[in-house]
Design brief:
By secondary structure, the protein is an alpha+beta fold. 30% of the residues lie in helices and 17% in strands. The chain is built from 16 helices and eleven strands. Strands 1-7-4-5-6-3-2 form a seven-stranded antiparallel β-sheet. Strands 8-10-11-9 form a four-stranded mixed β-sheet. α14 runs parallel beside α15 and α15 packs across α16. The two termini are 42 Å apart.
Length: 433
């Protein structure tokens, strides 16, 4: 017995194998049922499975076969770089260990989705009306009958011999069920909702989701075409009303701490600043440094080389990288507002590039290990969008309450976004100071 896995009380039983739908070659649906017995489980384990965070409709589960006869046992192999004299040997984590199935005798894994959960009296415990009924009777007995939908494509592969070597007998061999944490268990429903909305031809959806984003969300498009640097995105921005022109100046706000910081952020570029103090070549060094430290906000336009065709794209990209074709940067300053803290971070050129991407049309993905400034970059993009598009709404979605609160606190600490325009939804609101 385990918190996240249980042995099946009886073998999996196939209930429904529907004929293929028109134009397809896999079953329309495949349903099965298995039984769990909690008689020998402790009270805490029972609550975990069917009271606190129990099985619910649309939950995704994994059914597995563990065969002790083929189990090799032993510990996980050690990481290749852990054999140095002064380094402690570390085993490969189970989730990265290719020998894990053999060591534990796992011969098959099949996914499924919960359709309903019944007690011994036939009461559907997963029915929302039962869960909301304040006068409901407690579930009867220790057994739970779980009806699930199996992967029809996988079932077809098993049936025609391209899946498991056991054929359909693989479903009789399944003897354990594995569940996921509730927070991680909604991915299938989320993806199916996105797919149905995008493929359903709903007018409102097509008005709110641009055409270039649809194939990427569905997993069939070229992700690089969504970058602000791609010709595809530049053409879209030029031809679409209400989308920022790729040649327009972007309001970076207080991204740059001073003129010198702006110059450092665009290495190898020809930079033209409108600051009079930056043009005075005869000024002494001390005066110039003093002027550089004067805080200003900037609007910046990066003049990229002409849009490349498929014939000269590679050669032109190489010329841009080696500086043969210079990139020009035009910056216009305006007064830094008084009485606010603003941005305290001296962003690196790579971080500034991410901020530029976030302000430009297209899709921006920022990836990096902890401590590399991802949150600070996100906060700067949020603030810049707020000032650049004051009539628009920006939605922040995070994986946890703590991450969202961290964003909110850093945005509020800047002092340039009025709190009355910030709305925090969810239980984490009470944790904000």
């Amino acid at each position: 017995w385990a918190k996240m896995s249980l042995e099946l009380y009886s073998p999996l039983e196939l209930k429904v194998v529907a004929p293929p739908k028109l134009g397809t070659h896999i079953p329309g649906k495949v349903e099965a049922e298995f039984v769990l017995d909690f008689q020998n489980c402790g009270e805490r384990l029972r609550k975990e499975w069917y009271e606190v965070d129990g099985l619910k409709e649309f939950d995704n589960l994994f059914l597995g076969c563990v065969d002790a006869a083929v189990m090799t046992g032993g510990s996980a192999p050690y990481m290749p770089n852990s054999s140095h004299k002064n380094q402690q040997r570390r085993p490969i984590p189970d989730e990265e260990d290719a020998t894990f199935p053999k060591r534990f005798g796992i011969t098959a894994i099949r996914g499924c989705m919960v359709l309903q959960v019944r007690d011994e009296n036939g009461t559907i415990l997963s029915d929302p009306s039962y869960q909301l009924d304040e006068g409901k009777k407690p579930p009867k007995g220790n057994k739970r009958f779980v009806r699930v939908a199996l992967d029809a494509a996988q079932y077809a592969a098993d049936a025609n011999g391209t899946g498991s070597p056991l054929g359909l007998d693989v479903y009789k061999s399944l003897n354990i069920v594995i569940r996921r944490h509730g927070r991680e268990n909604n991915f299938k429903a989320t993806l199916e909702t996105i797919r149905s909305l995008l493929s359903g031809g709903t007018t409102d959806i097509h008005q709110s989701i641009p055409k270039w984003l649809k194939p990427i969300l569905l997993g069939v498009g070229d992700v690089s075409s969504a970058s602000y640097t791609s010709n595809n995105m530049k053409v879209f921005a030029k031809q679409t009303v209400g989308v920022t022109d790729p040649d327009a100046k972007l309001d970076y706000g207080d991204t740059f701490l001073d003129g010198g910081h702006l110059r450092e952020s665009f290495p190898g570029c020809d930079i033209l600043l409108d600051d009079d103090e930056m043009k005075k070549e005869e000024a002494d060094v001390a005066a110039k440094e003093q002027q550089l430290q004067k805080r200003k906000n900037y609007r910046v336009r990066v003049i990229d080389p002409p849009m490349m065709t498929s014939n000269n794209a590679t050669a032109q990209e190489k010329k841009v990288e080696d500086g043969t074709i210079p990139i020009k940067v035009e910056a216009t300053s305006y007064p830094f507002p008084s009485g606010i803290n603003g941005n305290p971070i001296r962003f690196t050129p790579v971080q500034v590039k991410a901020i530029r991407s976030g302000l430009s049309p297209g899709l921006t993905l920022i990836v990096g290990p902890p401590g590399t400034g991802k949150t600070d970059v996100a906060v700067q993009i949020i603030a810049n969008l707020y000032h650049s598009f004051p009539t628009q709404r920006t939605v922040l979605v995070t994986h946890s309450n703590a991450a969202l609160n961290d964003l909110f606190e850093k945005v509020m600490a800047r002092g340039d976004v009025d709190e009355r325009y910030m709305l925090r939804l969810g239980a984490g609101e009470r944790d904000l100071q």
